[in-house]
Specification:
Residues 16-103 form the DUF427 domain. It comes from Streptomyces boluensis. This protein has 108 residues and is mainly β. It has no helices and ten strands. It has a seven-stranded antiparallel β-sheet, with no helix packed on it. Strands 3-2-10 form a three-stranded antiparallel β-sheet, with no helix packed on it. A hairpin with a 5-residue loop joins strand 4 (32-36) and strand 5 (42-45). The N and C termini lie far apart (31 Å).
């Protein structure tokens, strides 16, 4: 990793919900919390806790030198709302196939 750059992944203890336009997209009591230098904490949710049937795969892909290549999914009117790393770097292997949303509700 770059000097001064750090990423940690740990098992979260908070309940995380994702609601958009009154519809629950995800609800998880077992999120992974990824903390990365210079970014807010992100919650990665297991696929079983995400209503993947509501999501449509996007053509968007981004590359992070620390995590790998991300794939994105959209909702009608909300492009690229959620992303996941299908083949993450070994240092963050725990987030493999977990979904991350831009906006979540956290109940501690």
């Amino acid at each position: 990793m770059a000097a001064g750059h750090r990423i940690t992944v740990e098992q979260g203890t908070d309940r995380v919900r994702v609601v958009r336009d009154g519809q629950v997209l995800a609800d998880s009591a077992r999120p992974l919390v990824l903390r990365e230098t210079g970014y807010p904490a992100r919650y990665y949710l297991p696929p079983d806790d995400v209503r993947t049937e509501l999501l449509t795969a996007s053509e968007t892909h981004t590359y992070c030198p620390f995590k790998g290549t991300a794939s994105y999914w959209s909702l009608p009117g909300a492009p690229d709302l959620v992303w996941a790393y299908p083949d993450p770097k070994p240092e963050v292997a725990g987030i493999k196939d977990h979904f991350c949303f831009y906006e979540v509700e956290v109940a501690g």
